[in-house]
Specification:
The chain is an alpha+beta fold. The chain has four helices and seven strands; from the N terminus they run ααββαβββββα.
Length: about 140
């Protein structure tokens, strides 16, 4: 595993959990794209770095609390596939748990692209891996 890329992904997740957008976004390249087009709900689309802060404010603003737990991380060259367990608590106390996945793509040590997927198998396929890969369950 490219430990540096994996550590960057962990740092981004930690920053999101703290609500520290600046710390999370400092790892993104100037031409970064956030692909949330496969999401379900009103916040769908592909966002540039300058749109990411507004997206994060809007998304996290929908919830009283949001917490991400990394479940699996798999490095595949310049990509890191991640599966997480996300805990959302609404303003009325309703709690939701989801298990999304995504692929972070790196270039020159920075994140140039993140793509959200509903299923772990989709993220692995996008990273050129399969669930039969011995590292896919890492």
């Amino acid at each position: 595993m490219s430990q540096e890329n994996v550590e960057i992904v962990r740092a981004v997740v930690d920053a999101f959990n703290r609500g520290d957008w600046e710390a999370a976004l400092e790892h993104m390249a100037p031409d970064f794209e956030f692909d949330f087009s496969r999401a379900v709900g009103p916040l769908r689309g592909v966002f540039k770095l300058d749109q990411a802060r507004a997206f994060l404010d809007e998304f996290f603003g929908l919830w009283e609390a949001v917490r991400f737990e990394v479940d699996k991380l798999v490095e595949a060259g310049e990509q890191v596939a991640v599966s997480s367990i996300n805990y959302h608590r609404g303003r009325d106390g309703i709690e939701v748990t989801v298990r999304p996945s995504g692929v972070f793509t790196f270039g020159d040590g920075r994140i140039v692209h993140y793509c959200f997927y509903q299923e772990w198998a989709e993220a692995l396929e996008a990273a050129g891996l399969s669930e039969q890969d011995p590292h896919a369950d890492s």
